[in-house]
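User: Good morning. I'm curious how pyridoxal-5'-phosphate would be positioned relative to this chain. Could you predict the structure with it bound?
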Amino acid sequence: MSRLIRAVIDTQALRHNLNVIRARAGRSRVIAVVKANAYGHGLVSAALAIQDAGAFAVARLEEGMSLRAAGIDSRIVLLEGVFSRSQLEDAAQDRLDLVVHDAKQIELLEQCGGASRFALWIKIDTGMNRLGFSPRDFVGALKRIRMLESAPREIRLMTHLACADERDGAVTREQLVRFAEATQGLKFETSIVNSAGLFGGTVVGSNWVRPGLALYGASPFADATAADFGLRPVMTLLSTVLTVREIQPGERVGYGGAWTAARPSRIAIIAAGYGDGVPRSFETGTPVLIKKQRAPLVGRVSMDMIAVDVTGVAGVEVGTTATLWGEGLPVEEVARHAHTIPYELLCSISQRVPLEPR
Ligand SMILES: *Cc1c(COP(=O)(O)O)cnc(C)c1O
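Assistant: Good morning! Here's the predicted structure, ligand included:
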């Protein structure tokens, strides 16, 4: 018997999704975003499976260093950049591209020298108000970067869209106008869109696209599934029925007795809890796929277990496999029941859940 709970990772689906993204991206090149342990899918193994992506992006220095240590030779963009001399030296050592989004980071480059070791992606804040130089400050930032004693190997310009998942693309269009104005006349390559920007309704031209979620076969949109775009789920979270019990009407299940049976019910106890990354915010009614049917979770998620009402499902017994999300049960659908987004579910898979190749 395999492990009670495991996340099965379908690297073929990952490669398939990369191809779908490539077709969508047209002439833009792809930066595969593999931050947060490749959205829970396993940083190194995911990156190795799509090495031909040509470029990767990570959020943290350590993630970039892990990719290099695994022998990945492609361009790696460090999305948050570096903040100290030792980080700068580590990044240089590992040939990481740096995002520069704050004046402190330019200062660091001025003080430490050796900027010629880097390709720099200057980030312009076009309305998200998270990272990046305002269009006005960007002018000065670019000037300082161009005056660095040792000129960076390359300069590229980027921004990030705040509302690309919204059907009404008004905010996105506004951001695009700001970006176009800020970069007017400059010949540098650019990067703008994430998954939602790539698959959304607004046409966005740039040299590089930065998809994350779509690679893993999930949709960033509330009103469209990944399948609508031809994307396939990469992670399927599977677990196992530990026991099945029959309960009478009026009996309650789990901590706090939070759910009460209204009829004679068969309850399957499944080995998946918040200790595995199944959030406690999963409500009664969250679907679990068992014997190819959706059955509702009932009561509270505990650390190691959930309870599922399988009254209507034939053949459920100790050892039966259940799908928490993935193939047959889109993670987007499940996320809605926890008032969260697929991103959070995927990257919250905990250490004790083994990732198994399909
Ligand atoms: C995470 C991230 C992405 C990828 O976003 P998805 O919505 O997963 O496609 C792209 N760009 C930046 C700057 C990011 O932080």
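The two ends are 16 Å apart (CA to CA). Residues 33, 35, 79, 160, 194-196, 210-214, 220 surround pyridoxal-5'-phosphate (CB under 6 Å).
Let me know if you'd like a different ligand tried.
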